[in-house]
Records
---
Amino acid sequence: MKVPVTAQLLDGKSLARTIRLELRDEIVEFIENNGEVPTLAAVLVGNDPASEVYVRNKVKACDEVGIHSRMFRLPADASQDDLLALVAKLNRAKDEPTHGILVQLPLPKQIDSTRILHAISPLKDVDGFHPENVGRLVQGAPRFIPCTPYGIQQLLVRNGIETAGRHVVVVGRSETVGKPMALLLMQRGAGADATVTVCHSKTHDLARLTRQADILIVAIGQPQFIKAEMVKPGAVVVDVGIHRTDAGLVGDVDFPTVSQVASRITPVPGGVGPLTVAMLLVNTLAAARAQQ
Ligand code: GUN
């Protein structure tokens, strides 16, 4: 195999822009046909600076494509009952329609995230975290696919990266990224049909497994965790991590060295992050359609 010297970038930022442009037309058509504007309710509890940025980006992206967004803020000391009451109100939302509900994670420690995610109407669960939607994904009949895995699948498909029969190694087993990513890629069909291995912090000899990956997807939440010697020459590397360090933003992958070994690699920033936001918009339009 020819060993590339420098990997080609997988540009999530520009693909996200393309997806938003596609959506804009579909949303105009939706509004014409239904007389209703697709609407997302975004809920932020507390003042976590990263969450503030993420929610702001989501609201801004809604504006760009013609989705109406409603922002709800609760104080850092809000109780679980306060948040459950807000979610119940948004689930009903009769006078002012709300098609999608997003509760930004992580939540303050006095609130049980699972309780909250289970309380969101599965028909409005644009994050795809409700057990009914997770179960549907497990059974190969997804309703809402979690936004980050969905965005990564789009990145692979639209860059012509074959997944069928290939060995995808997912590093990280979170409910938001690693686990749904593995489920999505092991499904039957386009952009899937992969052989999937999931590794995590307790995996023995992790490098032995990551070195087998044709496609390596890293969501372990540790800065520059994946080094060049953990990557097979010519592999496709997708970096979900984002960390603010003294040296600037870095991912879970040691980009300077791994990009010398991989064939394609996502940058941080400008890789997976913008796609997560774009797929939230896709899911919000899907929710609005399903509710007509
Ligand atoms: N926090 C980090 N990623 C996500 C996500 O995809 N959805 C929500 N709601 N919160 C997050």
Note: The chain has ten helices and eleven strands.
---
Amino acid sequence: MKNAVKGDIIYSSSPDKFEIFEDGYLLFENDKIIGVTYEINDDYEVIDCSKKLIIPGFVDIHIHAPQINNIGLGADKELMDWLETYTFPEEAKYKDMEFAQKSYEKFVNKLLNNGTTSSVVFGSIYNESTEYLMDLMDKTGLRAYVGKVNMDRNSPDFYIEKTQESVKNTVKFVEDTIDKYKNIKPIITPRFVPSCTSELMTKLGEIAKKYDLKIQSHLSENRREIKFVNELHPECNCYVDVYDKYGLLRDNLNTVMAHCVWTDEHEMQMLKSKQVMVAHSPYSNGNISSGISPVSKLIKNGVDVGLASDVSGGHEIFMGKVIVMASILSNMRWVHIDDAYPQLKFEQLFYIATKGGGKFFGDVGSFEKGYKADFLVIDDDSLSDSNDRTVRERLQRFLYIGDDRNIQSVYVDGKKIK
Ligand code: GUN
Ligand code: FE
């Protein structure tokens, strides 16, 4: 069956251009976009969303599911103390399935209600609750990569694994989930270099290669963290070289590294040449005093960038607000630190929150032919003013002052999931 959604359609085709069809039709067949037009024939069943905005679903390229209860808490500490004080004790609770179930239900509902149709997710170190999370995301109809986290050093005794147990549980996790779902896939998830021994990292690199899996981790986020990595690995020149040495920088958009606030020229070249995607996490970088990322410079130098809430380092799950914070920090970096790279424009910001991050999933985040039919219907009537506004202005206003209440429906693969 062919379908058409009628409404005010806006999406990114490239980082500097919106495609806009006011009172147009978004055409799709089964799970794929056919195109966008102003006129259709009788072959289509029409969903009338006139006067509503139709936009691609958001892509959150880095988020921690077992930190959902900590949203809005703990921004009084810097990364390493924040992990020890707030984060590890909270994640350790996900050994308890009853706690995990009620918390993950909240997490999945929040993603759905905020229109985050695709996400790249850290679970906890526990297989059982991480697999439960995947079941739930699958039942809800979302698209995601989800990882069982690995940690076998520099972690509290109540939240740490033995190396062999971590490896064994990872293989089981992968084999349990790799063919189980259509749109939910496992991803290899070493937490970050400080919490994984060389032996564990080597094994995880081998597992990723053997099963052809994507990898997610954290890189060059915070000064104290980077100093610690340099002390732990004097045999490597720098942080990114540690991941590379252990086979954890899988190329061609198979790896996502969160933050990269302190990326230097060498690291930037590595990220670019291997096509490692950077998860830009502006709220988190501000909350736990990591820094103001050189994201414009990364983009200008050809590094792939996606946008991330990094809940609960970041306290906003709605990607509209994350776009706004990315814009503010980019402005401030230009004013205070480096005017060689211009501030991110609205077009670029929306692009990284949709099509840019969507590249990690394949053809996701746009309305070009062949893309996945993942879209949101936005009722922005409550945000209107006394002027006629363009579709671009209405989108901008929704992102700045709208929220989940404006998201009327959510579609993934052409199916209505909310
Ligand atoms: N580095 C290692 N673990 C984490 C985490 O949970 N959040 C953030 N922001 N950085 C990390
Ligand atoms: Fe993170």
Note: The mean pLDDT is 98.
